[in-house]
Amino acid sequence: MDPFRTGDRRMSEADPSDASDGRRRIRVRTALLVVIALVVLVRLPTIQEVFRDDWVVLASNDPYFYRYLVDQSLLDGPLPSLPDRGIKGEPLLVATLAVAAWPFGAGTWGSGLVVAWYPVVAAVATAALVYGAATRLTDDARVGLAAAGLLAVTPAHAYRTALGVADHHAFDYVWLALTALAVIELLSRSERDRRTWIAAGGLAVGVAAQALSWEAAPLLLLPLAPGLALAALVEIRRPGPQRLAPVVAGLVGGAALAHLVHLLLGWQFEAVVYALDLLALGSVGLLALVVVVRRLDGSWTWLVATEVVLGVGAVVAVRRIPSLSTELDAGLDFFLRSGPAELAGVGANYGAVGVLVLLGFASVLAAPMLLFAVKWGWQRLESGWFVIGVYAVHFGVLAALQRRFAGELAPFAAILGGVGFVLLASWFDLVKPPVPRRLGDGDAADQAVAADGGDDDDALVVPDRTRVALLAGLAGVAVGSGSLYAALIDRRLVITDATYEAARWIAGYVDDHDLPYPESYVLSKWGRNRVYNYFVNGEAESYGYAQRHYEDFLFSNTDTGADWYEEFDGRVGFVVTRDLPHLGLISSSTIQSTLHDRLGSATISDIGGVGHFRAVFATEDGARKVFRLVPGATIRGPAPDDTETVRLVAEVSIPGADFEYVRRASVTDGEFEATVANPGTYRIGEGSRSVDVSERAIRSGETVRLDS
């Protein structure tokens, strides 16, 4: 027996009385509030690491790019004005965040507050939309609650929408869920009333916002094409009004809206907007095709054959459009290239365990539901199941290629997982099973549901103690593991105490010395480069320079230090080094070892120190060392007889460390010459000779002569 009823009935129409309907609605809303609270709580474990002293320390690296764009948007006038870098790519996201931060003013902590909390707000909105989509699809509030609950604890979604993890993904989830809900609503309604056109308007807003929110939006819009093609196979078999028409109206309206914004404001790349135009145009063609096949009394097999032929033709035509073809090739290259961890698939490192860690219990419940979705969609003539199934398969494939798309998969895995959770609980006799709905539309179907029990007043009644305990255990498995994995992932994203301490010190140093940019630029590991530079100089647009040079610099031989100084001169002000697990693989002759382990000193006899990288700060635990680039002072003088090298030593004290700064200079024609990075009194060789080097000499690159 089909375990789900579907159709156009509103829940209240099947209730025996207004009083019971009111009680049920209160219980549903209370349960939904509990689920929403869970959504929020799972995303707040790092609140102390985000709000530190008077700083809002966003997690990870990329959120500082969006905070930078928000700051720039608020500089040029009373209303947000997007900078050039914000107009293409994610303009709607930047504009939305800027409007929200506008009341706080430009250059204040307000941008950090807004950017930090926006992912949590997006998670709440997405969970509410997932609840709506699952409930509308199944006509069972319990499925909706289970789906929202599973989404709350799906690690891939939870860490992408955690407090302070603010990139474009959280914004995309909202429009994905809105689009899915609107399509399900429209495909579930046979009458054309106010609610139908509100849903069509929601679809228009959803797809337009999707296109304007991310430059790779075509990847998120693509599932609608095969989803609607499968829905058409259901529609051709269904009597009554055509349900595809409002969907097509929503897509056309969304394409028109996105194109209008693109023309008026210049937002987004042309190829992205054109992709939505093509989707809308294709939906119009699909609707016309369904109408023609119906009038010719053709079967669904006619429609399948025609869709295949036209689909192949559409792909060939798109490939012949230069701008779109170029974007497709670039996208394919992007998926095939290697890079950061998020570009690896969900199972790349740990196989099935990795899938479970990122997708949680929802994936276990959702996978078998895909086959049932196909069955229910075809047999019950409810094409919404096909749409959800296509979304799940599409993002499942993308997540297998790149784990960054696991978050996009999460809402659809949660919907299918919610179905699986209620079915599983009913098989264990923990809850009442869903009541099947008889095939049909309108009042007859509603009467059939009412006769079988429908959404009666007992649907959310608390069961006896034994069932409560068992149900709580089942829910605990679903919630507990996901929450734990999400918290563990969050801990890896937050800015560590050492990085925060180093950034705070450099920012204070720059303010005290009034250093302009790029003299205040911080060179660091690229994955934290925006963090340092946002707080130190406010420039967090790109980490490209650090990505190109930092690792090569650190693992070069110490003898190349002067060459690297020439490369960095006028471009870099500070270098931050960090603890690395040596494992015997990092040579003591590298710049990394010389700077981080020896603070630039030549304390190993056969390895020289560096003369242009001045140690200025070390964190309390020594995990981060900060060096300022300086011209350095050159010490020259006669060398003792019969010596090939001269050792120069000064005692140096900096915040966080006291050390001997040692330089070794080769002797040429009885003279030695060495560039030193620290001021102080230098002892020369083994004798009693010494020379004082001033701060001014270090900063101006003076030569200090040692008398005989």
Largest β sheet strand count, sense and barrel closure: 7 strands, mixed
Helix content: 55-70%
Q: How would you name the oligomeric state of the polypeptide chains in this document?
A: single chain
Mean pLDDT over the full residue set: 85
Strand fraction? 5-15%
Which structural class fits the helix and strand makeup?
alpha+beta
pLDDT below 50 for ≥5 consecutive residues: which ranges? 5-15, 436-458
Tell how many strands the DSSP assignment holds. 13
**What radius of gyration results from the CA coordinates?**
32 Å
End-to-end Cα distance: 103 Å
Number of helices: 27
Global morphology: elongated
Side-by-side strand order of the widest sheet: 12-11-8-9-10-7-13
Q: What does the model show?
A:
With 708 residues, this protein is of the alpha+beta class. It has helices spanning 18-42, 47-50, 63-73, 84-87, 91-101, 110-138, 141-152, 155-160, 168-187, 194-213, 217-221, 224-235, 244-265, 270-295, 300-319, 322-336, 352-379, 384-401, 406-427, 442-452, 465-493, 497-513, 526-537, 544-554, 561-568, 591-598, 695-700; strands spanning 51-52, 55-56, 522-523, 574-578, 613-618, 624-629, 633-638, 645-654, 657-668, 671-676, 680-684, 690-693, 703-705. It is built from 27 helices and 13 strands. It has a 7-stranded mixed β-sheet. Strands 3-4-6-5 form a 4-stranded mixed β-sheet, sandwiched between helices. It has a two-stranded antiparallel sheet with strand order 1-2. Helix 13 runs antiparallel to helix 14. The longest helix has 29 residues, at 110-138.
Keywords:
about 700 residues; alpha+beta; 7-stranded mixed beta sheet; 4-stranded mixed beta sheet; 27 helices; about 60% helix; elongated
